[in-house]
Amino acid sequence: MRVKKKSRHRKAVKFYATCFGFREPYKVLIDGTFVHHLLTQRLLPADEALRDLLSASRTPALYTSKCILAELRRLGKSHADAFDAASLLATTKCEHEKVVSAVSCVLSLVGDKNPEHFFVATQDAELREKLREIPGAPVMYGLKNSLFIEQPSVQQRKFAQLDEEKRLNMDISEYKKLLKAASEGKAADNENGSGGEQRERPISSLVKNALGVAEKSKFKKNRPKGPNPLSCKKKKPKPQSSLVQNQGAKVDGESKRKRVRKRKKNHKDNKQVQTAD
Ligand SMILES: [Zn+2]
């Protein structure tokens, strides 16, 4: 079980690394609910627990924000330990002069494209749901004394299947349409059929092989694609079947002799060659 869980986590991390450019040391944005969970379940030290979860070779960097800390402080005594622990983490800079709720702050930090490549660790189910709709936003959470990385959502997978150019040039209405189609579980192919839009085509063709191909191409072997054309040349003229072997041998013998002659000429042993003939 444990091994299986770990490989699922590895796959998820690999997905975000391959499709969204996540690189070590990973950054984890931790909200108050998650800090509280880490403390109550004694999943400490947290950075080691998260490094293990990510199967990372380097310890991930853990962040909170000013707004997350403010919310923890507001929760008072019940979350005093969590506030103290969270205060020791690095604070990522958010744009809020006046503090906002932790959820709003996390969402604004992640934005549309999660440019900082945060893994977001939270116990807040609503926040997790919202994050699933953002393309490159991986989510972590805890269940009792186990930590999990959510598998990439349908929307995230769909988005990853687009090629890079399409992603960059996509306007917001197109993007929302895609998310809607993904969350309704519709294949992009169906839309193509009814709408007849050629532009949508790349989605459907990429759907089939987007992730698999990206991973497989790394391990593609360099095999010769056919017989060596140089070795085939001599077989071309096909005489009668019974003679094939003998003639072949003859040709071989002649060519060998010629080769010898050439070599000897190169060595300026002309006289010997002439006598041999
Ligand atoms: Zn904020």
Automatic annotation (TrEMBL):
GO terms for biological process: rRNA processing. Residues 218-236 form the UTP23 sensor motif region domain. SUPFAM superfamilies: PIN domain-like. Keywords: Nucleus, Ribosome biogenesis, rRNA processing. The keyword Nucleus applies. Belongs to the UTP23/FCF1 family. UTP23 subfamily. PANTHER family: RRNA-PROCESSING PROTEIN UTP23 HOMOLOG. Involved in rRNA-processing and ribosome biogenesis. This is UTP23 sensor motif region domain-containing protein. It comes from Eleusine coracana subsp. coracana. The gene is gb28120.
